[in-house]
From TrEMBL:
InterPro entries: Peptidase_S54_rhomboid_dom (IPR022764), Rhomboid-like_sf (IPR035952), Rhomboid_protease_S54 (IPR050925)
Protein name (Swiss-Prot/TrEMBL): Rhomboid family protein
Pfam families tied to this protein: Rhomboid
Cellular component aspect of the GO annotation: membrane
GO MF annotation terms: serine-type endopeptidase activity
Organism per entry: Tenacibaculum lutimaris
Amino acid sequence: MWVYIRDMSQIIIGIIIANVLMSIKGFGDPAFFDRYKFQVQRVLGGEKIRMVSSGFLHVDWLHLGFNMYALYLFGELAMRNFSTINFLLIYLASLLAGSMYSLYQHKREPYYSAVGASGAVSGIMFSAIILYPDKTYSFMFFPFISFPAYVLGIGYLLYSIYGMKNQVGNIGHSAHLGGAIGGYLITLVLRPSVIANHTVMVGVMALIIAGLFFFGDKLKLNR
């Protein structure tokens, strides 16, 4: 465990510490949790800070652990290509993109609320995926099954769209999707060479994202 921590970049350690400290405060202080979680009615009422603060709160240790593990898994890979400032830019912009897309999708649901770093982590994940589309990944509980990064990325986008439409599980699919799109776009801006190096994969993802924006309003949430 200490080897992993020693090898992690300082910015990722800093982000994890911020998430852990704020989540612990939220675990033991319901008023604090309620004050800083994402809630549509409160955000539209002017409490914009919730769009960022909610990304550092989690509902429990399992939720926190999964998000921080994913940040470690994909973050170290993405960090190879960016300065600390640009990595932090991708993280925070993806967090905001996830919150903004959630706000757009749930604007008629005043009591819709959410917490978690998933939007930001999705952005980092997609940054790593388009930078290294051929790298293989295996799941924590199924180490014998591995997928190329481009399959994971395309599958993640399609599942998030499906999950958002059908409200699969108690999961903020819209935040995942918004964060992933944010990370994808910002990485292309910061590293445009990716387009020439991985044209097909970048193009397929672009078509899925474009389809979402053109036809997203037809994805009526099932009640």
